[in-house]
């Protein structure tokens, strides 16, 4: 996959597979956002669903903001160097191309995040 639109579609569909326990908060051209459905504390604020991830297309890449890697970095230490190279900052992945291996690993990472947040009662 090489186009930003194809990558955006793949990332969005990878998250949609997990509805429920996730729900869609925003579904616009410039952002797709999902969170949990359980009322919980996020920091000092009570929210109707704990933030999980967003997909944001940019002119040169598609970005996946993946909150579980921010809240539980040690749980995701085993991601491959290829995926780690796409991580900019603490929780934002920038994708210009997606190989089949990278697609599989992204789906696996999302599933790990779902399992982790489910066990912790966040989603």
How would you portray this structure in words?
- The protein has 123 residues and is of the alpha+beta class.
- It has one domain: Aspartate Aminotransferase, domain 1, CATH 3.90.1150.
- Strand 3 and strand 4 form a beta hairpin.
- Helix 1 runs parallel beside helix 4.
- The protein is globular and about 40 Å long.
- 26% of the residues are buried.
- The model has no long low-confidence stretch (mean pLDDT 92).
Helix and strand layout, with pairings?
Layout lengths: L3 H13 L6 E6 L2 E5 L4 E3 L2 E3 L3 E7 L4 E5 H5 L9 H4 L2 E2 L3 E4 L4 H20 L4
Antiparallel strand pairs: 1-2, 2-5, 3-4, 5-6, 6-8, 7-8
Helix pairs in contact: 1-4
User: How many strands, what sense, and barrel or not for the largest sheet?
Assistant: 6 strands, antiparallel
Radius of gyration: 14 Å
CATH topology: Aspartate Aminotransferase, domain 1
Low-confidence stretches: none
Order of helical and strand elements: HEEEEEEHHEEH
CATH architecture grouping = Alpha-Beta Complex
Total DSSP E strands: 8
How many structurally independent domains? 1
User: What is the mean predicted local confidence, pLDDT?
Assistant: 92
Shape: globular
Percent of residues in beta strands? 25-35%
With helices defined by DSSP (H or I, 4 residues minimum), what is the helix count? 4
Q: What structural class is derived from the secondary structure elements? A: alpha+beta
N- to C-terminal distance? 30 Å
Q: Give the % helix.
A: 25-40%
**Given this structure, which CATH class is correct?**
Alpha Beta
Strand order of the largest sheet: 1-2-5-6-8-7
